[in-house]
Amino acid sequence: MKILYLDLYKVTMQKTSCIVHKPFSANQMYVPIARGKMVKSKKYNAWIDKNLPLMKQEMLPASQFPINVELLVMANHLWRMKNDSDNLVKPLIDLLVRAEIIPDDTSRYVENFHVRYLYIPGDPMVRISYEPVE
User: Poorest-confidence range of 32-36, 43-47, 98-102?
Assistant: First the structure.
């Protein structure tokens, strides 16, 4: 009985948002190989491997589509000046797909995304959340 209650508690506590530490830039997603071909970088694959279990554990898959995705970037001014917000979007949306939160990143499933900034000292992080379009 106790185990069933704890499992039910875990399911109800999952949510539609998650914190991702050290956001990744799309500028570092790919590296060139012979004759102009590009492959996903080791750094990108390591970032995905680190954050994928966390996202699967913390977020419920979306059940209604399309959704609006909101990214709240929490970082200091220096980090914000060095990084473009549009370069943060693609890796985070790809992470949602890899975590099976959304089936695909096309406009059929994601209507829009909104990026906001909040100043915090220390290491950068992003809160990624979604809600169905009404």
Answer: 32-36
The tokens of 30 are what? Answer: 């790919």
Show Cβ contacts of residue 5 under 8 Å, excluding neighbours closer than 6 positions. none
Entry pTM: 0.84
b/e sequence 48-63, b meaning 16+ C-beta within 10 Å: beebeeebeebbeebe
Torsion-angle region of residue 124: left (phi > 0), alpha (psi -120 to 50) or beta? beta
Q: Which fold has domain 16-132?
A: 60s Ribosomal Protein L30; Chain: A; (3.30.1330)
Label residue 14 by pLDDT band (50, 70, 90).
Answer: low
